[in-house]
Amino acid sequence: MLATLCATMFMAMLDNVIVNNALPRIGQQLHSGVSGLQWVVEGYSLVYAALLLTGGTLGDRYGRRRIFLTGLAVFTAGSAAAALSGSTGTLIAARMVQGLGAALLTPGSLAILRHVFTDEKERARAVGLWSGVSALGLAVGPVLGGPVVDAFGWAAVFWINVPIGAAGLLLAARVLPEFAARTRRLDLPGQALSALGFGALVYALIEGPAQGWTDTRVLALAAVAMLALPAFVLVEARSADPMLDLRFFRDRVLTGAAVSGFMTSFGMFGAAFFLPLLMQDVMGWSPSDAGLAGLPMTAMIVVAAPLSSALTSRHGPRLPLVTGLALCAAGLGALSLHGAHAHYAQYVWVLLAMGLGMGMTFTPVSITVMQRVDPARAGMASATLNTLREIGGVIGVAVLGAVLGSRLTASLTESLDRLGGPSELGRHLSGAGPDSTTALPAPVRDAVHAAFIDALHLALRCGSAALAAAALLVALLLRRSRGVTLSPADDCRGLRSGHSRELGHAEGAARTGRSRK
């Protein structure tokens, strides 16, 4: 059973990033600019993030095994549709179907582990293995994607999911247990506001650099996001049975774990989107070479996952989480110091640091949340954790993409002015991406590549600064790692247990006094 859950989560996490090394080839064959390629990535992540909470609610209500199997079937069908896509729009739609499937299967996976492994030490080992395999999927994706694209074309990164998904369906139907469903109402207003708010925000961030920040549609969608997201928080705060239980964030340890998951995805997913474009379109690497360059990062994630699990069990989550965030921040900052002519040996240590940082954060976040949340809310807790991770990735790609796109347009326009070219060409080329420069004169092509590297460096430094601030915040939040456990009935079981102990001591003292009398 554990192997089945780990294999399906590996596939879902793999699909988050394996497509990155295929992006340059997709852009060439489907004639997609940077904005279109962002939507190939964001279409999956956005639907995944927007519907994860619903997936957790549906699992609690209709049975986690049933919803898990449904999600796996939908994900497999979406993978086949993506492989058969003949246009960017069709591919984005298929990626959204994949995101729907992943949103249904992910919360049930961790919640089933929470129920099956009742012993705390066994649960920690199981969750550690589950988290390590999930993180490995994120790390192996770029390494596996390059050779697959070189050998079989970009569609193969989606075909690879079909046999894995089919085998997983057959095996999961036989080995996964079912648990009693808990009667819950579907939070339709919350779901609608969540999808609307995050969808509008990401659309505005992706299209802003290409269309201009004063574009009417971009401004309108930004306004929708600013209204819908606060309304979502208000609805969840007042709901009797919310899809996002805001009481989770009254516990500083849970809040620190959530911040860690969100910010790691924010920085690392944002960087992972743009680095293949740099390596393949600017530096001229093949997809295989770009993928193999990530092997050191993969190796460090494999090493760090069990190490962080042991550190969490012995010292609590503060040490591995703060260390992991700091390493990721240092890695992104150091990566921004290297340009197109840097030798691999000069920055391989940066990849090692980033892999170690990612591996140090994934497992402690999962262990912390599952140990501190009552089993009856395991589905919601899992969904909340993974929603924040995915939203972090979505926002990271969108925000760092907006930084890169705006800087790229400004730098390229300035460079073309010096070369005597029309300023409108700068906006056109920045939206088309660095892969569209092969037919341009050499001075213009060099200007595009130089502007792209300059813009990428700024985006990496912004991601580094955000991760460094997150490391400081998490260090403050987790300065006391002993906390409380949430239950469905009250905010935290720990407070209730402490109150019970105080009553017990008082009753014991009273009995002692009576016996002395």
Amino- and carboxy-terminal Cα gap: 60 Å
Number of helices: 19
Largest sheet: none
Low-confidence stretches: 428-432, 481-517
Beta strands, count = 0
What is the overall shape? globular
The helix-and-strand class reads mainly alpha
Beta-strand content estimate: under 5%
Return the average pLDDT rounded to an integer. 76
Supply Rg.
24 Å
Structure description:
The protein is an all-alpha fold and 517 residues long. It contains 19 helices and no strands. The protein starts with a helix and ends with a helix. The C terminus is likely disordered.
Helix/strand layout:
Layout lengths: L1 H16 L5 H8 L3 H29 L1 H20 L4 H29 L3 H33 L3 H4 L1 H15 L12 H24 L4 H23 L13 H31 L4 H6 L2 H21 L2 H18 L8 H29 L5 H42 L4 H9 L9 H36 L15 H24 L1
List the defining traits of the structure above.
81% helix, 517 residues, single chain, disordered C terminus, 19 helices
Brief digest:
The chain is mostly helical and 517 residues long. The protein contains 19 helices and no strands. It has helices at 2-17, 23-30, 34-62, 64-83, 88-116, 120-152, 156-159, 161-175, 188-211, 216-238, 252-282, 287-292, 295-315, 318-335, 344-372, 378-419, 424-432, 442-477, 493-516.
